[in-house]
Amino acid sequence: MSTKIPFNNSLNLKTTKYIQSMQSLNENNEEVSVVDKDDNVIRKEIRKNVREQILIHRATYIFILNSNNKFHVHKRTMLKKWCPGFWDIVSGGMVQYGETYEENAERELEEEFGLKVLLKPLFKFYFENSQTKIWGKAFLGRNDGPLKLQKEEVERVELMSQEEIEERRKKGENFTPDGYAAYEMFLKENCFIL
Predict the structure, then answer these.
(1) DSSP state for residue 73 in the 8-state scheme
(2) What are the pLDDT digits (tens) for 12-36?
(3) pLDDT of residue 13
(4) 55 contacts 45 by C-beta, under 8 angstroms
(5) What are phi and psi of 71, to 5 degrees?
(6) Nearest to 137 by CA among 106, 97, 104, 101
(7) What b/e sequence results for 164-183 when a residue is b if at least 16 CB atoms lie within 10 Å of its CB, and e otherwise?
(8) d(C-alpha 145, C-alpha 66), whole Å
(9) Where are the beta strands (DSSP E) in the chain?
(10) Does the pLDDT of residue 182 top 80, yes or no?
(11) Ordered structural domains, the chain, with CATH
């Protein structure tokens, strides 16, 4: 059974709409790294154009596990442009222009979960579907303590085992496709032992 990490993130409709409009303004103008098929940075582009034109970009995928090897799986808020309301097995985000994967991972983890933990690099991978093209780099961190969630991005976090994740998918719960692809690679590489 999954363990819920207590966090009240209820927002009224007016506040939600305001945050959504402000977040949209900020996110749309954020400059991210556009890369080629070999993950070489070729230019900067605003996030909105990267999404709309389905340009190849970089992103980080941070697995946070507790001492019992349960994943910190978060429910994305409905404010998110990419996969709103989906479960995500990883924390992370688009790498900003001039930022390394490592810098992005540290920044995103602190923003989304309020965590500063040692991150171990795991693997790089390429993910593509009809909506996105991403070069990703995965990291592993450990945490048994409390989280400070970014209310605009993270609705809640639940600790889930590998079996619980699969059970929820079989029941039809949505998981981000890129995060799930990273998770499959995590399992294939047996990253639990790292």
Answers:
(1) E
(2) 555 544 444 444 446 678 999 999 9
(3) 55
(4) yes
(5) -85, 140
(6) 101
(7) bbeebeeeeebbbebbbbbb
(8) 9
(9) 3-5, 31-35, 41-46, 56-65, 71-76, 87-88, 120-128, 133-142, 154-160
(10) yes
(11) 9-193 (3.90.79.10)
Tell me what the mean pLDDT of segment 139-160 comes to: 93
What's the chain's length in residues? 194
List, for residues 91-149, the tens digit of each pLDDT value: 999 999 999 999 999 999 999 999 999 999 999 999 999 999 999 999 999 999 999 99
Rounded distance between C-alpha atoms, residue 4 and residue 127, angstroms: 30
Q: What are phi and psi of 54, to 5 degrees?
A: 50, 55
CA neighbor of 56 nearest in space, from 138, 126, 139? 126
Q: Angle of helix 177-188 relative to helix 162-170, nearest 10 degrees?
A: 140
Do 65 and 187 touch, CB atoms closer than 8 A? no
pTM for the structure as a whole: 0.85
